[in-house]
Design goal:
About 35% of the residues are buried. This protein has about 400 residues and is mainly beta. The protein has three helices and 16 strands.
């Protein structure tokens, strides 16, 4: 065994995945929220603890490549009862925060939550005995988002420390420090924005020469004469022998391609059924198929389930930075042979690009489309065809 891929999870039943920042999975769009706030006031204020509310507007940075970050604007307002006369003082504040989430955590088919931390700055206005003063403020804290089963809605719990420059609101104090605990709801603005999960793919470009599947009618511009997975316009080594493993230029490279092992391997902490297992590594060249790496019908668009599985794969690859992987796309024999080969290459490349977006160096990944030419089961039955429709990962040995 030349390399071993470490498990991305610490417990067999606990799993995690990355998704849209500080939003419910598959709702990586701007959001709004509101909630109740309880404040533990600085003892120097000579007033009781505060009660109030907050409003927020957030914008995930997913489309700029920061899948765990969001920028959030927050307004809060609260009141405190003065010790001396029982009347109320007030505070209002506007903060601009950067929020980082740690991905969804939970148990399979059970409770799920998304922890996060935040920090930012803004302006705080204290209204004490009718005298309003504005001051510079900082805050930092953390919390958790708990998905609810309705339209991306989530419960949100957070706690933060707020420090502000004192503008004579409390005599003899330079800095005031208050603590706030909040509970509320968060809603994605799906009526104005479309989540990436549901966005239509970009229209295909017109081309002079196209390969058309007579069954589905799908048209592809790329032509791959030697069937090595690299289209002719980019292929620097035409007429590569069929079945040879090639690099991104279409030139042969050394790779190990062994049969699938009899036992279901454990890869990235999960077996082929997607169940948690003890990861003891994978032999060099052993093919590993993750059954939950699935695509939209007759297309190369990854499903949400596939992205979550590939997040686990990315974690495993990060733990073994010297490992290089061939991503092999395979189909059954239903439909046009050329179409199947092109589709398998597009699907393998889609997986490759997603892993690159999750921080894996592009030089460690090779995408290969084998079409219908490397079945691992009979194409005469639906069960066999389902086995042949797969994405297979193999360790490359240079």
């Amino acid at each position: 065994m030349r390399h071993m891929l470490a498990s991305a999870t610490a417990l067999a039943l606990l799993w995690s995945c990355s998704a849209a920042a500080v939003t419910v999975d598959d709702y990586d769009i701007p959001y709004v929220g509101a909630g109740y706030n309880f404040e533990i006031s600085d003892s120097a204020r000579e007033s009781g603890n505060g009660n109030g509310f907050d409003l927020r507007f957030g914008w995930p940075l997913t489309q700029w490549g920061y899948s765990n970050l969001a920028v959030e604007g927050q307004f809060h307002a609260l009141q405190r009862k003065r010790d001396v006369d029982g009347q109320h003082d007030y505070q209002r504040g506007i903060m601009l925060d950067l929020v980082y989430d740690f991905g969804s955590l939970g148990w399979q088919n059970g409770f799920v939550f998304k922890p996060f931390v935040l920090g930012g700055l803004g302006v705080v206005q204290d209204d004490v005995r009718g005298d309003s003063r504005n001051s510079f403020g900082l805050n930092f804290g953390g919390g958790a988002l708990i998905p609810l089963p309705w339209l991306g809605l989530a419960a949100r719990l957070d706690a933060r420390i707020q420090a502000q420059d004192n503008k004579k609101s409390v005599p003899g104090e330079d800095i005031l420090i208050d603590y706030r605990i909040g509970a509320g709801l968060q809603l994605p603005l799906s009526m104005f924005f479309t989540p990436a999960e549901h966005r239509a793919p970009a229209p295909a470009q017109e081309c002079e020469l196209a390969v058309v599947d007579p069954i589905t009618g799908r048209s592809d511009c790329g032509v791959d004469s030697d069937r090595d997975g690299v289209i002719d316009s980019l292929d620097e080594c035409p007429d590569t022998p069929f079945g040879a493993v090639v690099d991104g230029r279409g030139c042969p490279m050394s790779a190990v391609a062994l049969p699938m092992p009899e036992e279901s391997p454990c890869f990235g902490g999960f077996d082929v059924q997607g169940q948690a297992c003890a990861d003891h590594g994978v032999d060099s060249g052993a093919g590993v198929v993750l059954e939950n790496v699935t695509f939209e019908n007759s297309d190369a668009i990854l499903t949400g389930e596939a992205r979550r599985a590939l997040d686990q794969m990315a974690d495993s690859l990060k733990a073994q930075p010297s490992v290089r992987i061939e991503i092999g796309g395979h189909t059954d024999n239903v439909g046009n042979e050329s179409f199947n080969h092109i589709l398998s290459q597009e699907r393998a490349e889609s997986v490759r690009q997603y892993l690159i977006s999750r921080g894996i160096d592009s030089g460690r990944l090779v995408a290969m489309g084998y079409g219908q030419f490397r079945p691992i089961a009979s194409n005469r039955t639906e069960a066999g065809r389902a086995q042949n429709r797969r994405v297979e990962f193999r360790i490359i040995v240079d």
